[in-house]
Amino acid sequence: MTRTRLPILLSLMVLLTTAWSPRSPHASHSVSAPPWSGNLTARATPGWTTEKVWSRSNDDWEPAIAADPTSPYVYTFTTRYGGARACDTCPKTAIVMRASPDGGATWGPDRFVCACPGGHGQYDPIAEVDGNGTLHAVWLNGFNPGATYSSSTDHGLTWSTPVSVPSAWSDKPVLAVSAAGHDVYIAFNGPTQGDSYVAVSHDGGATFTTATAVTSARYYFAGGAWTSADGQHVAFAESDYNRHYTAGIHIKAIVSNDAGATWTAVRVAKGFQQPDCTSKGCYDGFYGPTPTLAGDANGNLVMAYSVNTKPRAPERLMIARSSDFGVTWQGRETLSPAHGPADALFPAMAATGQGDFRLWWMDTRTGRWNVWYRASIDGGLTWSRDVRLSNAAGGAPYKTGRGFGEAYGDYGEMAITNSGKTVAIWVEGPSYHGPGGSWFVRQT
User: Which terminus of the chain has fewer CB atoms gathered within 10 Å of its CB, N or C?
Assistant: First the structure.
């Protein structure tokens, strides 16, 4: 997930009074569109389409995806740098979305989520669709007002008046929504030294109250989220670091079993200092554990995270399981290759039904980055063999037959359509600095 690049030793006063972007090294470059070369070289994986880039004329970063559980609609969102403005006084870095009425086979036009004037940019979109077909989205309007929520009942054509979480400053929101859409939970790191916060709404996102989930001397980043159908049980996957990204990292579940009235931090795993990132524009914590989680209809949870066994060593992708809404965890298992120097990072998960879990992650087993997929139909006890989803061999300057240059930003997402098909989106680029694009693939 997105991490701020400003040194986190800076005080809250500096954060609130200094104009800066969470992508400052990236946003400083002058390229307004990726320098595409040639046509997409198709190499579809059996059972999947060939991955396709959302836009060849824009610099897109850190996308999100959501699928309607009751209709074929699928929605994708991305942070777009240097594109058209939503209004004359709106920032050039904006959240753009599009809708597909047929499970991702065809797409409507790009649309802005928020014509929000002023500010230094919009970042970090996350979206969910409830059981009534309402589309819920959260993103950053800069760091102040920060995490901002809106919803749409007409497939993204129009959006409700944006509501910002009650916080002086916020970063990296993550969203969970109950089946009826009444309960909306937004996790983020907030103004008190990066502590873990959760904004809670029980009126469909009209109003929010903010609770401090964890107070510590460490810096938290939220990943995936899950809530039960009735909104009573909620869990977020989070990681926490020291102020310099120079020591051990904790992987935690932030859990509430009383509709957000109280919160408990449960340690799931511990890793050592993350490997160094040598990609242009990278910051020290980029190759962190980036945990995510999903849950099925019975409340069984699976968390995926990256972890290593000694400081700066390569990280492997692991999963852990919970059958009590995230209070306890067991069954830790490595899912990425256990040989060679490959790093395995940036997982995304989705789940549905009873025991149906789906997972992708990125690793460097080929010497370049690729996206790999595995699935479980028994609650994470056993998993299918690896399938390579980044299956186009060319068509962008950072792609070869072995993969792409770097994860462009530190998260993407996946979802499951109403017909049970997996849809996924992620970001590829030549380096962390970019420019790059959001790439989509779907199960056939």
Answer: C
| Residue 12, phi then psi, degrees to nearest 5 | -60, -35
Evaluate whether residue 184 is within a structural domain.
yes
Q: Residue 279: what are its φ and ψ, rounded to 5°?
A: -65, 145
Answer yes or no: is 259 within a domain.
yes
The structural domain count of the chain equals: 1
DSSP state of 380: T
User: Over the chain, what is the mean pLDDT?
Assistant: 90
Q: What is the pLDDT of residue 421?
A: 98
CB 96 within 8 A of CB 77: yes
Question: Is residue 175 in a domain?
Answer: yes
Q: Specify the CATH number for the domain of residue 261.
A: 2.120.10.10
Tens-place pLDDT, residues 22-61: 333 333 333 445 656 567 777 889 999 999 999 999 999 9
Predicted pLDDT of residue 34:
61
Q: For 54-81, what is each residue's pLDDT tens digit? A: 999 999 999 999 999 999 999 999 999 9
Look at residue 181 and tell me if it is in a domain. Answer: yes
Cβ-based burial of 108 (10 A; exposed 0-12, middle 13-18, buried ≥19): middle
Give SS3 for 26. Answer: helix
Taking the C-alpha atoms of 390, 137, 146 and 108 in order, what is their torsion angle to the nearest 10 degrees? Answer: 60
Range of the domain at 264: 12-442
